[in-house]
UniProtKB/TrEMBL annotation:
Xref: CDD domains: ACT_HSDH-Hom (cd04881)
A GO biological process held by the record: methionine biosynthetic process
PANTHER family in the cross-refs: HOMOSERINE DEHYDROGENASE
Taxonomy, superkingdom: Eukaryota
EC annotation from Swiss-Prot or TrEMBL: 1.1.1.3
Protein keywords: Amino-acid biosynthesis, Methionine biosynthesis, NADP, Oxidoreductase, Threonine biosynthesis
Entries under InterPro entries matching the protein: ACT-like_dom_sf (IPR045865), ACT_dom (IPR002912), Asp/hSer_DH_NAD-bd (IPR005106), HDH (IPR016204), HDH_cat (IPR001342), HDH_CS (IPR019811), NAD(P)-bd_dom_sf (IPR036291)
GO molecular function: homoserine dehydrogenase activity; NADP binding
This protein's record includes keyword Oxidoreductase: yes
Pathway terms, separated by semicolons: Amino-acid biosynthesis; L-methionine biosynthesis via de novo pathway; L-homoserine from L-aspartate: step 3/3; Amino-acid biosynthesis; L-threonine biosynthesis; L-threonine from L-aspartate: step 3/5
Stored PROSITE patterns: ACT, HOMOSER_DHGENASE
Pfam families, sorted: ACT, Homoserine_dh, NAD_binding_3
Name of the protein: Homoserine dehydrogenase
Length: 421
């Protein structure tokens, strides 16, 4: 289902003679039907016209079809097609993070109830094999945290802003020009796509039900070129991180731009690359790094799932692979995050301002690690103050920022970013 960027790669592999999938499975895997919206559209992959259909029923109701590969995207009508496929005893392979984030556990249970498999390696990290590793190879670990860069578009924009000190709008226009950002980039730049992927990863890591609404989310559009300059002066890069961690049995999920030490592995993931760092109780830290999108990497993940499914079908083993998800874990609010903070303020260039700001922070028990005063603008008589705090709890920092915003000499809070070390 779907013959776009990913579907084209999958169809191409299946139509080669001999197909690499058939060779690896050890018996023929044939492409029987391809669902599209418009059969007359010209395409970059040659598919015999007789295979194309706009009627999902020709796939879902065909008893000869064993495995459905869904690479259309979106939750409607995909989620409905998932249910119909699983209920009619078809195995499913998908790249769809949205459906897996919103309905993943229910669909996995439906697959199990129907004795079929549902695989979704391509839904997170493109060609990086993180889904299967969390489910299998890392299954013996308690996962202390996952820290990841899982949206290539955002990482490309942030890399451009850092290298060229370019404004957000300019870096976004470049990403669109290169085909890395869609015409409506909201899902990427507002962290929605990353929140879907983090929901999938957290569900697997903690064996619990999570939903995208559990993820605290902050986009990257408010970042300004000077944030990158100051971060660099302090020895940090700015990255949009998707983080899951657990404390006293409570999970915290968040997607936001954060300062990462420049020498840290995640601080060096640039352009459209993705990376996922998993901290396991037995493994310690493990880092996955690679291409998070594009035809080749995503096709690799889909075909890997297809080969695994077809191989299992050839054996007389139970296909469902029981996996139990407990009810949802308690989810901690963003206010409970404990870290250091970068705060940039635009203030009137007058004596005593810093003392007032320090007092507002001190009133909430927050101490300052270092301060920079920059860019005095003679005309508007304003200056920029950059503060790096010592570790503090976020709810106290938010309260202090409210007081600071109300101080007479403070013209604007430029940005507040967390520091993830
Ligand atoms: N592109 C990537 O690098 C990448 C990476 C990881 C995961 N993914 C995921 O993979 C999936 C597919 O992405 P893509 O980039 O390949 O998308 P795409 O290029 O936009 O292709 C979507 C395909 O699905 C078909 N389609 C869409 N809605 C349909 C409907 N309601 N009924 C029938 N056919 C429909 C389209 O048909 P027409 O051709 O007739 O319009 C098109 O062939 C998404 O879930 C995406 O999140 C993509």
């Amino acid at each position: 289902m779907g013959l776009g960027v990913v579907g084209g790669g999958v169809a191409d592999a299946l139509l080669q003679n001999p197909s690499p999938v058939s060779e690896r499975v050890g018996r023929a895997v044939n492409l029987r039907r391809v669902l599209v919206r418009d059969t007359s559209r010209s395409r970059d992959v040659e598919v015999p016209p007789g295979l194309l259909t706009t009627d999902a029923g020709e796939i879902l109701d065909d008893p000869e079809i064993d495995i459905v590969v869904e690479v259309m995207g979106g939750s409607d009508p995909a989620a409905d097609y998932f249910r119909r496929a699983l209920e009619s005893g078809k195995h499913l392979v998908t790249a769809n993070k949205e459906v897996m984030a919103k309905n993943g556990v229910d669909l996995l249970e439906l697959a199990q109830a129907n004795g079929v498999t549902l695989r979704f390696e391509a839904s997170v990290g493109g060609g990086i094999p993180i889904v299967g590793c969390l489910m299998n190879e890392l299954a013996a670990n308690d996962i202390y945290h996952i820290r990841s860069i899982i949206n290539g578009t955002t990482n490309f924009i942030l890399t451009r802003m850092a290298l060229q000190k370019a404004p957000f709008a300019e870096a976004l226009a470049e990403a669109k020009g290169l085909g890395y950002a869609e015409s409506d980039p909201t899902n990427d730049v507002e962290g929605i796509d990353a929140a879907y992927k983090l929901t999938v990863l957290a569900t697997l890591a903690y064996g619990r039900r999570f939903r995208p609404e559990h993820v605290y989310r902050q986009g990257i559009s408010a970042l300004e070129p000077q944030d990158f300059r100051y971060a660099e002066e302090f020895g940090f890069a700015i990255k949009s991180l998707a983080i899951a961690d657990i404390q006293d049995g409570e999970v915290q999920l968040r997607v936001y731009p954060a300062l990462v030490p420049a020498e840290n592995m995640l601080g060096n993931v640039n352009g459209v690359y993705n990376a996922v760092e998993v901290h396991g109780s037995l493994t310690g830290r493990v880092l996955f790094h690679g291409m998070g999108a594009g035809r080749g990497p995503t096709t690799s993940a889909v075909l890997g799932d297809l080969v695994a499914t077809a191989r299992l079908m050839s054996r007389e083993t139970s296909l469902a692979g029981p996996r139990h998800f407990k009810e949802q874990a308690a989810v901690r609010s963003i206010g409970s995050v404990f870290t250091r903070y970068y705060i940039r303020l635009i203030v009137a260039d007058q004596a005593g301002v810093l003392a007032q700001i320090a007092r507002a922070l001190g009133d909430e028990g927050i101490s300052i690690a270092s301060v920079l005063q920059k860019d005095t603008d003679l005309e508007s008589q304003s200056a920029e103050i950059v503060i790096m705090t010592h570790p503090a709890q976020e709810s106290f920092v938010q309260r202090a920022l409210l007081s600071i915003g109300n101080l007479e000499p403070v013209r604007r809070i430029g940005n507040m970013l967390r520091i993830e070390e």
